[in-house]
UniProtKB/TrEMBL annotation:
Catalytic activity, reaction form: 4-CDP-2-C-methyl-D-erythritol + ATP = 4-CDP-2-C-methyl-D-erythritol 2-phosphate + ADP + H(+)
Family affiliation: Belongs to the GHMP kinase family. IspE subfamily.
Name of one Pfam family that matches: GHMP_kinases_N
Protein name per the record: 4-diphosphocytidyl-2-C-methyl-D-erythritol kinase
Binding residues annotated for ATP, in chain numbering: 95-105
Keywords on record: ATP-binding, Isoprene biosynthesis, Kinase, Nucleotide-binding, Transferase
Catalytic residues in the record: 12, 137
């Protein structure tokens, strides 16, 4: 008999992304609005009593030791002095290096799930702080609701947005985040805005011109989607998105998408699923 749990690791969109400065260590200071999506990877956790942390399935391009789910589990186990272990199965749905935060979300879902399954009882704030060591977007996914994000990803302010439908397109390329942040043509001095006042048309993704200049597939996906609704890149790319008025409109655009790209109709998600189930005990099988 061992405790187990299956959970969505939701994707995110950066509704806008401004680069407002650079720290002495080279990391960039950002302002961004992060939105959760009701779409993502699926992760299954099963507690082991022998302390081992195992990923059971293959994930192309991600050896188990480098997988953020394994690294997140190991970090929590060490930091909280846990003697139990876990078997993890990752059903990868999100394109990697897509700017949808897949790896970071997998890590955050792992922290939230194991905090419960192992009975650690760490506060959300503590899990956010732990998550920052794994990646800049992990604190947001632990926070688990739409947020204004500042600093390098650690300063979060909750934001309430009405539900929306989006079209998301993967233009079939993977963009390395480090390459884009180190580009000499990147502008790093966008004026700091008062975040709650943002309006989409007055914002942009500062990484988008750099990515479009280097990856023409991203530029052409934005051009194509712009014919249907106002299109923009998420994160450091390569995925692009547009908000549309309804599920029906989203599905119509997806149906017309050229075959060389992948497209999805997705709706927003108000809360990370583990937040909704915060009070529920882990299932025992
Ligand atoms: C810019 C965002 C917005 O969501 O892009 P996406 O990764 O989602 O596309 C993220 O904050 C990215 O976070 P993450 O993907 O975790 O980046 P990391 O692996 O920590 O960083 C990869 C590399 O990008 C650069 N980097 C990253 C984040 C940042 N604020 N400044 C940087 O200069 C650093 O050179 C770093 O070594
Ligand atoms: N569980 C995971 N899922 C996806 N990528 C992972 C995972 N663990 C480690 N990675 C590494 O993180 C990189 C960035 O992946 P991802 O988070 O999908 O991109 P992005 O930050 O652009 O959304 C991948 O190329 C991969 O090497």
């Amino acid at each position: 008999m061992s405790a187990e749990l299956s959970c969505l690791a939701p994707a995110k969109l950066n509704l806008f992304l401004h680069v407002v400065g650079r720290r002495p260590d080279g990391y960039h200071l950002l302002q961004s609005a992060f939105r959760l999506l009701d779409w993502g990877d699926r992760i299954h956790f099963r507690v082991r009593e022998d302390g081992q942390i195992l990923r059971l399935n293959e994930v192309p391009g991600v050896p188990a030791e480098q997988d953020l789910v394994v690294r997140a589990a190991r970090l929590l186990q060490t930091q909280a002095g846990v003697t139990q272990g876990v078997e993890i199965t990752v059903d990868k749905v999100l394109p990697m290096g897509g700017g949808l935060g897949g790896g970071s979300s997998d890590a955050a879902t792992t922290l939230l799930a194991l905090n419960r399954l192992w009975g650690v009882g760490a506060s959300r704030e503590r899990l956010q702080a732990l998550g920052l060591a794994l990646g800049a977007d992990v604190p947001f996914f632990v926070f688990g609701r739409d947020a204004f994000v500042e600093g390098v990803g650690e300063a979060l302010t909750a934001m309430d947005l009405p539900p929306s439908w989006y079209v998301v397109i993967a233009p079939g390329v993977s963009v390395p985040t480090a390459e884009i942040f180190s580009a000499k043509e990147l502008t790093r001095s966008t004026e700091i805005i008062r975040m709650p006042d943002f309006v989409m048309h007055a914002t942009r993704n500062d990484l988008q011109p750099v990515v479009c200049g280097r990856y023409p597939q991203v530029a052409s996906a934005i051009d194509w989607l712009n014919h249907h609704a106002s299109a923009r890149m998420t994160g450091s790319g390569a995925c692009v998105f547009a908000e549309v008025e309804s599920e029906r409109a989203a599905r119509q655009v997806v149906a017309q998408c050229p075959e060389r790209w992948q497209a999805w109709a997705v709706r927003s998600l108000a809360r990370h699923p583990l937040h909704d189930r915060a009070a529920a005990p882990a299932r025992n099988d």
